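CATEGORY: protein folding

GOAL: derive structure tokens
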Amino acid sequence: MTGTDDGTKAGTRGPARASGPRVPAPWVRTRLRAAPAAALALALLVALTAALAAAFPRAVDRYEDAGLRRTLDDASPRRTTVQFFAPRPDLELSLGEGENALREAALRKGYDAVLAAVDKPLVADRAQSSYGVRTSDPTDASDSFLARPSGLPPRVALVAQNALGAHSRPASGRLPRATDPVTATTSEVEAAVTTETARTLHIKVGSVIHVPGLERAPLAVRITGIVAPREPDGAYWMSTPLIREPSLIQLPSDGGTYWIGALLLAPDAGPVLLGTPGKPERYWQVAPDTSGPTAHDVSGLASAVAALESGPGLARIRERVDPLTDATTDLDEVLSSFTELRSGIAPLVAVAAFGAGTVAAVVILMASGLAAERRRGELALVRARGGSLPGVLGRLLAETAVVAVPAGALGLGAALLAVPHARLSSAVAAALAVTVLACVALPVRAAFAHRAVRVHGGREDIASVRPSRRRTVAELTVLVLATAAVAALRRGGTDDAGSSGGSGDQLVALAPVLVGVIAALVLVRLYPFPLRRLAGPAGRLRGVVAPLSLARAGRTSASTALPLLALLTALTTAAFGGSVLAGVHTARDHAALLATGADARIEATHALPTALPGRIRDIRGVREAVPVSVAYRAQARRGSGTAGETAALVGVEPGPYGQLSRELDLGGFPARALRATGPDGGSSGRGRGKAVVPAIASPSLADRFGTAPFSVQLEDDSKVTVRIAAVRDVTPAVTDLDFLVVDREALTRRAARPTALLLTGGHLDGAALRRAAGGGVDVRLRAEVRTAYVHSPLQSGAERIYTAAVAAGAGYAVLALLLALVRAAPERSALLARLRTMGLTRAQGRRLLVLESLPQALLAAVGGALTGWAAIRLLAPGLDLTAIAVAGRPAPGGTARLRTDALSLLVPSLAVLVVATGVALAQAWWTGRRGSVRELRAGDGR
């Protein structure tokens, strides 16, 4: 048997090595295999950040689109429909040509021309759009069977609208027909009415209604059917509500009333309107498709509507249909209301977005800094061996891109799945920005660190590294930007910023972030000095833990700026965002309280039943029911010949009402302030008008009448003489009106009867209160009024986005703190191991690590709280929370301003201290488990 020198059998030798030069292993594959955990951590960080960044603009698009749809749906079709109308055909035309212009074929041709003039993004809802001919001036119908509320005959409009059968179903009878060609001289036509019109005007199938004729006999309109609308709230019926239900009109002169209704003719019966005095007009109603437009289409929608109202679109319609065609719509006002609300909310959301985005960017930079620090020796050796700087940077970029690009794509895909049906471009741009930052952060950091070839670097703690001129210039630049942003926001506010657009808006949104940046830069420069001064006194203490921890904290790494920047920015954003959300909730609570005057309000236009307060007090959850009488149209005047001042006179029981006012902080007063006394100093008694009654007045009444007595005439013609004894801005019983609050005992028995009950209590049952109050009584709960203020998805969506952004910023801040501690962990572990060989106990080691990390955490916590407070104080005058709080709905209380929220300042700061202490304790415990020998092995690259 033949063998080889290495002992292997002949014939079983492995494959021979290929001759030629050795092929080096690929750099990227080698590096990824050498540090798979670091690559996985970077991939997770990039994927999470890309997903959040891509989801943010899509979530904003989602709630803005929902807000636009809600705005359009809440507006009645009469406001959103674009209506075109033209008078009767030119009188110079022959009678036959005029009749043909009112037939359905001609109207259909004009309808097609109108639809062709509608420009995108405005799209017509063809199913709800309509056209036809109608009498613009309803005429009297003198038939005796028709309803006459005050003896006046009703008036009817003749309407020949297309597709009546497609939008209604016969309740009785059949649809009207026009079998023979209808002309202006036709003596009788068929018509239908809706169920509401038939019920109100007493019309039945077979009824004949006579309409006055123009130079001819009256037109007989025979009712052949009663129809029920298929979609009664659709634009087909509600663009002209008269065709669906009649309207009761009151004459301003004598108060008489009469009905106006519509008779629905066959679509081809339009020419008969030429024989009536009702001034016939052609019309085309374009209902917009409210399901398609998105929020970013609003400007295009407004332009399209303007073109149809008075622009190129209307010019094309006049050219093809009739030169006298005109247009009207309130759709532009509806879109404007949405734009104003969005402009008030968007800057607040941008503040949270910039804050969270800044913290996330800092965390990515910190992660790249951690990787650069871990590979400092390796890269220095490559440079010392002749590696070019571009070559090294290119390889670092390649190995980072291999990890970051797929992770960014994965995060983008997750965002698209989590938040569907929104714009793609903004999400792709956000995810791409995160991916690019993650790819270039490590190469750029390495370029600055290794632009010069050196093997051994010097110390890089704060004690040895001095700020360069470039850093000083950069810090001064940031200071100027922050000052400009704060000044712009204080001067113009978010309303002006949201309406102006451009880079100035972004600078204003960055203002809280820039305030945190300035604080971080200042604190990084200043905080080592007090620590070094404390190191001397601490050295005289017994033990080594305190002086050693202070000395190490005072000589911390020069790269502390990034983690401190992340923490301060996150704390400032969290404090700012928490205060915004707290201010919004407070504004809603206060507005709801002013609107109701208590936790619930029961009110009627007449006196409430005497037994009602007792029944209400027996309901579960009601703590107190305070009765008040309110005369809203009382006239206050000094002297018989002077003009009266309208005010609300509120009669109360001084004790319970005063206590309610004090509890709710709505103009509280002591009960003795309203005790009515007569001329002899005793009680004035009920209804003694000669006595001067003390009253609590609103500021405007106090300014006009002063403290001299004056007379107040109530709605029942009774009078009371009052003297203003105190002035209050608000009172629970009345909202947004001038008021006088007096003792009920001073009023007549009729005027003193309660018209309202103010209830206090918790978890009030609205249904039970309404059952107990009965009919004809208005019951309002404070909780229900508050809920009504959150009406638009713009509000709720912005609040959710704001909360999520603040939470994301807080999470990234914790991650920044962890990265900072992980970066210092090897050096701390080695130090702890060395000290243990010198006799340091485990308890002393734990205290050492906690005390060493505590100064930076305490600095971040206190600095973050102070920076957040300062940012709120600086920016509050320019921030208006009214838009996000009440969404432009009628709400008392004035403008909602930003105020400092103590919980938003303290809770995040305390969380930073807890996390820093917990991580230090965990590190000390883990180091103790590993043992000192492993930490002190020679050759470890620490």
Observations:
- Confidence is low (pLDDT under 50) at residues 1-19, 497-503, 678-684, 938-942.
- DSSP finds 29 helices and 21 strands in the chain.
- The radius of gyration is 40 Å.
